[in-house]
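Internal tracking record. Fields below are filled automatically when a chain is submitted to the structure queue. Please do not edit lines marked as system-generated. If the sequence contains nonstandard residues, flag them in the REMARKS field before resubmitting.
Queue: standard
Priority: normal
Entity type: single polypeptide chain
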Amino acid sequence: MSPSIDKPTSSGIKVIIVGAGFAGLTAAIECHRKGHQALVLESFAELKVLGDIISFGPNAGHIFERWPGVPEQLDPICIKTKGLTYKSYLGEYLFYQSWDTEKSYGKAYNGHRGEIHEIVYNHALSVGVEIRLGQKITEYFENEREAGVISNGQRIVGDIVLAADGVRSKGRTLVLGYEDKPKSSGYAIYRAWFDSAQIANNPMTKYLVENGDTHSAWLGPDIHFLAASIKDGKDFSWVCTHKDEADVEEGWQEPGSIEDALKVLEGWDPIVHEIVKATPFLVDWKLVYRDPMPTWVSPKARIALIGDAAHPFLPTSVQGASQAMEDGATVAVCLALSGKNKIPEALRAFEKIRYGRVLAAQKTGETTRDKWHKADFDKIKENPESLKLVREAWLMDHDAEAHAYKVYPETIALLGGDKEPAVEAAQLRMVEVA
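SYSTEM-GENERATED OUTPUT FOLLOWS
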């Protein structure tokens, strides 16, 4: 679909969005495309290009491709591999998962979180989205006619508030009616991104970068290690999910220790050790979880949680950012179809459209982690395809905008006049990285 560059007709709906991550920015851009007025409030005082590798499936690619100029900016900085090589923790080759079968789904965009975020952020500004930085949100509020926040002591009111400020969002307390605190999952992730020069200069590891981009996975007991070269092998990134029992109150993100990482990976493939030794800096990101939310919508249906604020994902789902973008695209459509006079209807329809799909996507992360961390290598040799990431059409070949337009009328019919539509109880612990 060719995106329109015409100024959209105003819907008269004012949307306040808390958080300028991928959920918040997508919601803002998509709301702007539908004629809604979007105001983004972000706590950071300035934009910084931070982070490491992040993945956006073709389902997110469909959204990017409606934003003029964005795919062309993303393409040079994103990883270009034909598949993923699986090895045992001892370095034994297990399987190669090709991405060729997924080409019909559309294009994926995987690269540096900060670099991709900067492109999306600048696109939001370029189309006219107002973004205010350095905003401290101390309260969410709503009544039957409006919703708003207290930011830096100022009362800001709109027709709707979208809480896109992560799992610590104060919006969660308003929606749930109580404060839910994070709990330790027993896992953490070492994360790193750096120039690949040392990898290229080491005879043991140079094959990972000298012929362009590569993607490799090493699997072991309760640990997995993923490594990728990006930008034609110029940059290198790795992540390692490992057991961790540290108290979450000690901090969710801590500087990582090379020595500690090597101890965690003791007895592993020497190539993995060489990668870690070449790393100038890493962080140790605690994986914590919260109890599943029975609803993402506030009692008066003027405030909705989106992205990690609503449904954190395990990294092994490789869908957290993509599903956050789907939220933003879907809620914008629902508001466009409901109009200003039926905003509660729009938010309840948004939740109904998204809830079951998000739950199914979350479960893929738990399934992948368990089959990787509890791998029986003798059985895997008999059926190596059992290691594959879930990359099925229902998940990857999905156009959130088109789907929302299609199912909105029947969703409203299903909801009927219910004030508080029931949603099925989630069976999966919601896990997040941040």
